[in-house]
Design a protein that fits this description.
mainly alpha, Glutaredoxin
Length: about 170
Amino acid sequence: IMLHSPLALSLLLIAVSSNLAMAIKKEKRAPQTLSRGWGDDITWVQTYEEGLYQAKKSNKPLMVIHHLEDCQYCQALKKAFAENEEIQEMAQNNFIMLNLMHETTDKNLSPDGQYVPRIIFVDPSLTVRADITGRYSNRLYTYEPQDMPFLIENMKKALRLIQTEL
């Protein structure tokens, strides 16, 4: 019986450690990237300040998405946004992208209140584009999943405004 116990113990240790390794691997496979589900192929900046810097440097507009994890409207918008190829491609190639789950100190980013979701464009001259709004007069910068064509138009507008004004 004594002969069996070191062997049994080492087999038990092997079983436990391989289960642990598998559990760790599972955790690692889905890292929480800066995309937070809005588009994994997009390069996201981490902070509003970094976004402003990159916008100025690259002459691309900054697109700021304010959202919260437990907001069903945000989740629905995120899904529509992430699944829309045209939006993903434009976001990837033509915009500096930032999604925030907290408010910034810049009051310009909440011209009509601190609701979520809201999407605000900032041009490379670091001007918040209060003229690029969604379809709803009570929440100017909000979009719903069915508004993706409208958001695409606004993204194109943000790009056009750079070319004409700068």
